[in-house]
Write a structure and sequence with these properties.
- The longest helix is centred in the last third of the chain and has 23 residues, at 265-287.
- This protein has helices at 3-16, 24-28, 31-36, 89-97, 111-121, 135-146, 160-168, 170-174, 183-194, 204-212, 216-228, 233-245, 249-263, 265-287, 308-314, and strands at residues 61-65, 69-76, 100-103, 198-200, 291-298, 320-321.
- 50% of the residues lie in helices and 9% in strands.
- Helix 13 packs across helix 14.
- The N and C termini lie far apart (41 Å).
- With 323 residues, it is of the alpha/beta class.
- It is built from 15 helices and 6 strands.
Amino acid sequence: MTTNLRLKSVSRTALGIVLGLGLAGAVAFQPARAFAQAVEATPAPAAARVVPQAEGTGPALWVVRDADSTIYLFGTVHVLRPTTAWGSPRVDAAFNSASEIWFEITNPDDQAAVIPLVQQYGISPARPLSSLLTAEEFAKLDAAAQTIGASGAQIDIFRPWFAGLSLALAPLAKAGYDPNSGVELTLRARAQAAGKPVKGLETLDEQIRILAGMPEDEQLAFLRSTLDSFDEATTELDALVNAWAAGDVASIERLAVTEMQDQSQAMYDALLVQRNANWAGQIQTLLAGSGTTFIAVGAAHLAGNESVQEILETRGVDVEVAP
């Protein structure tokens, strides 16, 4: 494997998190501000915004039905440029028909909740990064940290997973990607405006502990790969977003899911497979009830051989592409 291909592989592993972990944008775009200041106030809910219409049918959408239940499954990207065209009449129709809306987590933008959790799980003054990285690696860390208004010295106390997540997405903010333009916050604003209940498959605490619970060597591998592929991130995410907006699930699988599995089986299992199995169980519980539900989760969870849909199919639940 050439160096260029290796960098693409590891950068896609990092960017797979953008399609697989709901809190990614909230944590990654605000570490300097979050830890340099005290929490002042929780921001007001975002206003519903108009999304540019996608060409063709737009992002992929699936549906699960029985006699008295309809459940839509919609894959998302947690951070987007405001100009990304992903609007879709069929997604809008499915969303409008639902009596309740489910996301991975309900409050990815709640810094008052995020900060104490990251302080608990993402900070380790007794084991600084400078003691775990070589001098050359720490110099790369310092250079990358400066792009988010911090320095290597300031994030030296971060645990490897938190430093890796923060720096993996740092170039994206500079390129115009914004968690406030991500699918979840956009749809949550619509749900709130329509008076629809918003529910979560997980909590912020559970999501943070997924990464914090990874073995340190896996965390360090993620951090090192982030530093090595720092300049590749925007190009790679552009490709993923284009595939997602076009409903190209095969490309999402190839660019994000397969790459993550090839790079780190442990991360793939923790971020995708185990959670997909858990969510499939929750969907089966919803299916046992009645009514219409719209579920929006990271697109990586709805691609590949161990996706939510595939797990449901193995359990005897039919999943169809929504018309």
